[in-house]
Write a structure and sequence with these properties.
The chain has helices at about 20-35, 70-90, 100-120, 140-145, 160-165, 170-180, 190-200, 230-240, 240-250, 270-285, 305-325, 345-350, 370-375, 410-420, 425-440, 440-455; strands at about 5-10, 35-45, 55-60, 60-70, 125-130, 150-155, 185, 205-210, 210-215, 220-225, 260-265, 295-300, 335-340, 355-360, 385-390, 400-405. The chain has about 450 residues and is α/β, with parallel strands linked by helices. It binds adenosine-5'-diphosphate-glucose. Adenosine-5'-diphosphate-glucose binds near residues 265, 341, 367, 368 and 372.
Length: about 450
């Protein structure tokens, strides 16, 4: 079997069970089984540029090769371009996008440096798999250094319609960079269609077969590989004796019976203020839920150095304070807002102990929380998943209660329906959802992508 080399912005530590963030969770789940090398940033920020060489550490069959970033790289490449330009554009939020020449220069510089450090570490037979929006031009930088290996790229976030993407000053060279890959993978059919439309309508490409394009004399595949989780490992965590104890604590005597749970990085794409407003509407429209239902929102901080992230935190704190002030009583706090990371086994128990899972992003590549919630349930007495139609997961998870997160009344009605849903219907919906999550688990995602990459054209120089 060819060696697999995964490249992503951050490399998670497999020695620590608390990999956090969707990308780290799904790569680690998939790489643990197959082994190989994982290259990327180690999270360190150094003051000067004198030593940016790679450090390698081995964990069984997996080698981690990591590099630090300089303060300037962090500011320009990571905060400035990846998170203040690409992230909002790809989530259809042009209003929040900021474009500066320093940021795009920093993005090119770090991608070039990653390529320069990685190229000498590669063997000619390695399969390369590059992940996500931080590293779109990495393939082109590697090709410029003579790397002829098969290289695949997977985009974890949405691909916007061409009409949105063209608002970004850097879109032309960025889109050209995509065609240096042999395979580009997307979460959903919508993302793939948006990408192919850009290639055909804006770059004069042509469709050779449903998943293969010819653009500027190059052939590339563009296909859908929905991300998944390690189903058995997560289910075991949720059903463990430790989880049962945590669930008991959640439902202490005297506490409200029904727990609605939301778990998201604190990000403006996740629709948290809209979610709180929907919960408020639930209490207004169905007052019997007062003292009977609690919304537990777990939202750990991320990217706080980007302005829009600090704003969303203040908005959320104000909203939860307002709802608790208006509806709360000495024996009931309607919104429990937890602004920190939680161990994955605690998270699994909290999902299982919650009768409703509320996953209502305004736009999301896939959303692994939706899948984790389903897997954590007791199949004999499962909770109900409420899922935004704008999460990639909604393309597949049709037995969830699918909602428009912008419509507070619609989401409130869905919550009421979930709370009242008879057990037989809950069991039926859950069984169908679990089968879908199993079909697209972490291993099928990885296996499907690598099979497709291996089947791509033979690289010219091989
Ligand atoms: P994210 O935007 O990070 O991922 P998501 O897919 O929901 O979003 O994954 C979040 C992960 O972080 C989940 O595994 C969740 O359990 C974990 N997590 C969230 N809050 C936590 C907390 N308080 N403590 C501990 N863990 C927590 C990106 C894209 C998504 C895409 C994934 C994978 O934005 O659309 O689904 O990559 O491709």
């Amino acid at each position: 079997m060819k060696r697999l080399v995964v490249v992503s912005n951050r490399v998670a530590d497999p020695g620590c069970s608390q990999a956090f963030g969707g990308l780290a969770v799904c790569i680690l789940d998939a790489l643990r089984k197959r082994g190989g090398m994982w290259f990327g940033w180690n999270g360190d920020i150094v003051g000067d540029e004198s030593d940016l060489s790679a450090t390698s550490v081995k964990f069984d069959d997996l080698t981690l090769a990591t590099v630090p970033l300089t303060e300037r790289d962090y500011r320009e490449y990571y905060l400035g371009f990846a998170n203040a330009a690409l992230w909002p554009v790809h989530h259809y939020r042009l209003d929040l996008a900021r474009f500066t020449p320093e940021a795009s220069d920093g993005y090119r510089r770090v991608n070039d440096r990653f390529a320069q450090t990685l190229a000498p570490m590669l063997k000619p037979s390695d399969l390369l798999w590059v992940h996500d929006y931080h590293l779109i031009p990495l393939g082109a930088s590697l090709r410029a250094r003579g790397v002829a290996n098969r290289i695949g790229f997977f985009l974890h976030i949405p691909f916007p319609p061409p009409e949105v993407l063209v608002a970004m000053p850097e879109h032309e060279w960025l889109m050209k960079a995509f065609i240096e890959y042999d395979l580009v993978g997307f979460q959903t059919k919508t993302d793939q269609a948006n990408f192919c439309r850009f290639m055909c309508d804006f770059m004069q490409g042509e469709t050779i077969s449903p998943d293969v394009l010819r653009v500027e004399g190059k052939t590339l595949s563009a296909a859908v590989f929905p991300v998944g989780i390690d189903v058995d490992a997560f289910a075991a965590m949720a059903a463990s004796p430790g989880a049962a104890k945590r669930i008991q604590r959640l439902h202490r005597a005297g506490e409200p019976r029904i727990n609605v749970i939301g778990v998201d990085r604190l990000d403006y794409t996740k629709g948290l203020p809209d979610r709180l407003r929907s919960f408020k509407r639930l209490l207004e429209m169905y007052p019997k839920n007062c003292k009977a239902v609690t919304l537990m929102q777990i939202a750990p901080p991320t990217r706080e150095d980007v302005r829009a992230y600090a704003d969303i935190r203040h908005e959320l704190e104000a909203l939860s304070g307002e709802i608790n002030g208006q509806f709360g009583d000495f024996d009931w706090t309607p919104v429990r807002y937890i602004h920190r990371r939680v161990d994955r086994d605690t998270l699994a128990a909290l999902y299982r102990g919650s009768q409703v899972g509320l996953v209502t992003p305004l736009r999301d590549g896939m959303n692994l929380v939706a899948k984790e919630y389903i897997v954590a349930q007791d199949p004999e007495n499962p909770g109900v998943l409420i899922l935004s139609r704008f999460a990639g997961a909604a393309e597949d998870l049709q037995e969830a209660l699918i909602v428009n997160p912008y419509d507070a009344d619609e989401v409130a009605h869905a919550m009421q329906k979930a709370i009242m849903m008879p057990r037989a219907e809950r069991i039926e919906r859950h069984a169908a959802l679990l089968a879908r999550v199993r079909k697209h688990d972490a291993y099928n995602w990885m296996g499907g992508f690598l099979r497709a990459l291996s089947a791509c054209r033979i690289p010219l120089a091989a």
